[in-house]
Amino acid sequence: MQNNVYQSIMDTLEDYTSKLSVVLPKIYGRKPLACINTYGCQQNVSDSEKIKGLLEKIGYDITDDDENADFVLFNTCAVREHAEDRVFGNIGRMKALKKQRQGMLVAVCGCMAQQERICERVRQSYPYVDILFGTRHIHKLPEYIYKRLTGSARIFDISEDFSEIIEGLPIRRDGKLKGWLPIMYGCDNFCTYCIVPHVRGRERSRKSCEIIKEAQSMVDAGFKEITLLGQNVNSYGKGLDEDINFAQLLRKINAIKGDFRIRFMTSHPKDCTLELLDAIATCEKVETHLHLPFQSGSDRVLKTMNRKYDSEGYLKLIKEAKERIPNVSFTSDIIVGFPGETYEDFKETLRVVKEVEFQALFTFIYSKRFGTPAASMPDPISREEKGKWFSELIKVQEEISKKKYTSYVGQTHRVLCDEIKENGKLSGKTLSAVEIEFEGEPSLLGQFVEVKVDRFTNILEGTKI
Ligand code: 5AD
Ligand code: SF4
User: Fold this and answer.
1) What digits encode the pLDDT tens for the residues 213-264?
2) Contact 40/165 with Cβ under 8 angstroms?
3) Ligand 1 in contact with 293 (CB < 6 A)?
4) In CATH terms, is domain 412-464 a member of 3.40.50.1760?
């Protein structure tokens, strides 16, 4: 981005920050509270951390309690219909709260808000929503708040004229141990079922120096796990002036001194190169885990989904990964009941699931997304029938997961202790992203611990050694 454009954005931000430092105390007579409700994927969680950083900068305290908040924001997801329904239900709750709370603002942003039809619905049917903005305008939030609080009409901003990456916004991370680090935004793949490219725009990568700087600052701040985020992380680097790809980026981050782990999501099979598999195998900080969505095992369905690989290519890739990466584990996303999918097609999905032996699966029944090509494809299979296929898939996977977990029994793994469970046990994940529970002192939280796996019940249980 041209330096002067960037400078003007930062200047505008500073300008509204200083204006709000006068306006907010006048309106609320104290530090106002902001509550952010986040739906959907990790990208949204990461965006919400930026939003919280901005809100703190302009003078809000952050709370989890929307009943006492002066500013309530819904950062929404549009990937499946179910998520949309939930959001509207929760926005509806704000009507009564707003009546009781003078000066309260309600805002909606994120992937759902970016869609014209949702914007109109909110405009017409949710008059108590003050501000609605899309996925490209997080940095303008202080401006929207200032304008609305000082008498502007309701604000709706889903324009698509701006898609630059803005570096240097404040971030208020939710944790101190594990953190998200976006390396790219948007998606160019246009899978025919998916709304993401329509709401998050074209793929843009961050400069590697910005990513390294942020990773280094996270390591300096004591983070022990950094998850690199993007809709398609392994096409990282496209369109940048520098000559860099995702494998090279991983190597650079791996070279940062310190004891920490690097995770990443999501990968697309078509961009998963042997160079990347080798980088995963040789970079000691990088997880030996691939979340590699294959969506369907049927080549015919994959073609109509516009996935740009076939089941043979996918299985070949998995075979290469198994050969090159010691103790590699796989997870995947699968869509059941894509328009036109037959039971024969579905059986192809089962075939791939059985052959790969995933650690776990994220399975979804196809959800029609307005504006995507798949939405106008004939979809004759009933929801009930799709549900049956779905249950069959879950059952097959349960057996595989059990087998995969059981293969860990007797092994020793270095886990990052990241949680104290309700039963008082500690829990941590292996480099291959598998969770193990074990007894230990709470002081181990945040540390790497060697654990020997004793048994698999419904979870792996082990002993600290
Ligand atoms: N219906 C069902 N699942 C979907 N996904 C994306 N779009 C849809 C849809 N319209 C799933 C894909 C993707 C994951 C994030 O969500 O499996 O990988
Ligand atoms: Fe959606 Fe496909 Fe892009 Fe993933 S790769 S965000 S499924 S269009």
Assistant:
1) 999 999 999 999 999 999 999 999 999 999 999 999 999 999 999 999 999 9
2) no
3) yes
4) no
